[in-house]
Amino acid sequence: FFHFYAGICSALKLTVPSHTIHGIEGQPLHLSVDYNFNATASEIQIIWLFERSQSNPKYVVGSVNQGVIPDLEYQDKFTLIPPNASLRINPLHLSDEGNYIVKVNVRGNGTIAASQKIQVAVDVPVTKPTVHTEPSSGVVEYVGNITLKCTVDRGTRVVYQWMKNGKRLHAGPNYTFS
């Protein structure tokens, strides 16, 4: 009975954000992780892996006790400050979109382990829109049509909305949208 109870006592709890984390391209992103356990620990190991869709997880950074072990390829990009298990990514690129897996191992009287996955989406800020008119003079009196074309150079999840005098325009006999 005692051994069973001790096993329950020494469980390792790992808490990560539950939904997709959105970061902005070129900005830092902080992946916040909390862990706790009530065992006596002689060693605490933290491992971070990155997994793009259809590819194997890659090691990015880890630590044993207070010593950080970076992957040399990414050492300037990922920051881990043990015993905190949170990860900082700076700067964030579109190629950093995917799943980040954190694993914590605690060695004391035996080893306990837990891992969690955090999904990261990278957003690109929408650039200032440009509007072109056809005919280019923009003057149409009484008859004829004018076409307004709006474009943006960069941005994720772009939504276009036309307004007239601060009110939303809807399709009708005078307006068509494409």
UniProtKB/TrEMBL annotation:
Keywords annotated in UniProt: Cytoplasm, Disulfide bond, Glycoprotein, Immunoglobulin domain, Membrane, Signal, Transmembrane, Transmembrane helix
Source organism of the structure: Tychaedon coryphoeus
Location relative to the cell: Cytoplasm; Endomembrane system
Gene3D superfamilies for this protein: Immunoglobulins
Record's keyword annotation contains Cytoplasm: yes
Pfam families referenced in this protein's UniProt entry, alphabetically: V-set
Record keyword Lyase present: no
GO biological process, one term: centrosome cycle
InterPro entries: HEPACAM_domain (IPR052280), Ig-like_dom (IPR007110), Ig-like_dom_sf (IPR036179), Ig-like_fold (IPR013783), Ig_V-set (IPR013106)
Domain of life of the source: Eukaryota
Domain Ig-like per the UniProt entry, residue ranges: 129-178
The protein's name in its UniProt record: HECA2 protein
Protein's membrane topology: Single-pass type I membrane protein
SUPFAM superfamilies documented for this protein: Immunoglobulin
